Amino acid sequence: MARSGSIRPIRRARELCLHYQQGTSAGRRAALGMPMDMRERRLLIVDDEADEAVFLTHGFRDGPSKVQIRHADNGADALDMIRSFDPDLVLLDLNMPGMDGFDVLRAIKSDSATLAVPTLIFSSSERAVDIERCYRDRANAYVVKPHSPEGYRRLAENIDRFWFETARV
Questions:
Q1: Is the CATH number 3.40.50.2300 carried by domain 40-167?
Q2: Mean pLDDT along residues 21-47
Q3: In the record, which residues are listed under signal peptide (predicted)?
Q4: How far apart are CA 156 and CA 15, in angstroms?
Q5: Are 89 and 120 in contact (CB under 8 A)?
């Protein structure tokens, strides 16, 4: 609940307008008043290790939300898929051959068509310099990869609860 004088509702309204103008699926649905829980969420996982996508897919399978998951194993494919798949959320690994996650993040956040797509860095790196660089380049969150199947299940549950359930307007 926002307090009187809070800028949070204004900021949220501005974000919805930006989403709607850019034509992102989440923004259109929210701006039109469609409850977020009435549709399937779209998640793009960008990681050169296919096992990561498999572990996360299993984690989302039993969750409360319907989640359609696509996987890109390199940065160039990721940028194409962001435009064609119109994800509600991108999980982006940093360490990939060719175009790495830092380059992909900068490309996403510098393009007005993809700027509003929430992008979570999903990396094994716990180095402060990497984390700071990602936030400086406008990542929405930084998540360290879990080390167990149970960790992936909890991560999927937390992503669902925070990024999908609380996105209701």
A1: yes
A2: 63
A3: none
A4: 25
A5: yes
